[in-house]
Design goal:
This protein is mainly α. Helices cover 64% and strands 0% of the residues. The chain has 9 helices and no strands.
Length: 224
């Protein structure tokens, strides 16, 4: 039986432009359009391309990253950073931009109020666009509704009741994001502490060794 073998040296593995990375009906395109439709000044996020100083990441792109990531369970800033390098949907959404985890966490911290508003509005639009399956704004864990679209099976009253639960779910998600970043910070601190401790122990052993050598030399010189 013949096999298909990969070739990392192959030229042109990806499409020539990022625009072609995802299909026309990919859900990520809906999230891109949703965020583009928001009035950023009403959200309290400043858009000023003429602003003097060090160039910042486009606030629209940063908000898209958070909304799309949180909707599909990518909570920590470090995981979002990895996603913009390795996940085709995220690469397409960001247009190739690659903010680090500190930049992502800082943007969320500064714009948490706006992010909350956008996630809640996004949840309502997702119902209209039938983007429920796999969306963690609507499900806690891996259980996903298997029936037809909510907008086709639910009346207005039931939908409004459900959206109240979604709003609470969003609050939980935002809290989880903060906790995820804190856990990763603590983990990094622990790794640095262990590394520093190892270096200190190694330095201490070297000092003791050199100290013994010096004492032996002093004894030798003393008897000569």
């Amino acid at each position: 039986m013949s096999y298909r073998h990969g070739n990392r040296e192959q030229i042109g593995l990806f499409p020539p432009s990022i625009e072609e990375y995802v299909k026309e009906d990919d859900p990520v395109r809906a999230y891109d359009a949703i965020v583009e439709s928001f009035d950023f000044s009403a959200l309290g996020i400043e858009l000023d391309s003429d602003k003097v100083g060090c160039p910042q990441y486009d606030p629209k792109a940063m908000l898209k990253l958070l909304v799309y990531g949180y909707s599909y369970g990518v909570r920590s800033s470090r995981k979002l950073e990895r996603a913009v390098y390795h996940n085709v949907s995220f690469i397409w959404l960001m247009g190739g931009l690659k903010p680090d985890h500190k930049t992502i966490a800082e943007f969320r911290r500064k714009n948490k109020k706006a992010l909350r508003k956008v996630l809640k509005q996004c949840a309502r639009l997702c119902i209209e666009l039938d983007l429920i399956a796999g969306n963690t704004l609507f499900v806690d864990g891996s259980k996903i509704r298997a029936n037809a679209s909510i907008k086709n099976t639910w009346d207005k009253k039931k939908c409004e009741k459900y959206l109240k639960k979604v709003d609470k779910r969003i609050e939980t998600i935002l809290s989880e994001c903060d906790k995820a970043d804190e856990r990763e910070k603590d983990s990094r601190r622990l790794l640095r502490w262990k590394k520093n401790l190892k270096i200190k122990r190694s330095s201490s052993l070297r000092l003791r060794k050199h100290s013994r050598i010096l004492r032996r030399r002093e004894k030798i010189h003393k008897y000569h």
